[in-house]
Amino acid sequence: MDTIIERAVKILKDKTTIKFLDLEARKQATGPYDSKFTGTPYLPPGFEYPKGETSGNPLFFLAQINFGEFPHLDGFPQKGILQFYINANNDLFGCDFD
């Protein structure tokens, strides 16, 4: 028989647990469409490399996620590439605290 505490814990787990993917980064060669941290991003033909709004300097490519390489998670696309860039030209990496 469940105690009230065990039932409360189960309710909390059911309401707060979310599905996730456990990723493991490996140092290896990647292709243009592969998920990766740093390196060379995929850019479609004619796409201009992202630049900082104020400096106009190229942004630092941080990561690329190819959703087609992973099991589907509700709320996320099943295909497509998402990229992350940051301003690495200053100590705050583009953060603006104002």
Automatic annotation (TrEMBL):
Highest taxon of source: Eukaryota
Write down the InterPro entries for this protein, in alphabetical order: DUF1963, YwqG-like_sf
The root-end lineage is: Eukaryota, Metamonada, Preaxostyla, Oxymonadida, Streblomastigidae
Species of origin reads: Streblomastix strix
Record's protein name = Uncharacterized protein
> Which SUPFAM superfamilies does the record associate with it?
Hypothetical protein YwqG
Q: Which Pfam families match?
A: DUF1963
Q: Where is the signal peptide?
A: none
Q: Which PANTHER family match?
A: SLL5081 PROTEIN
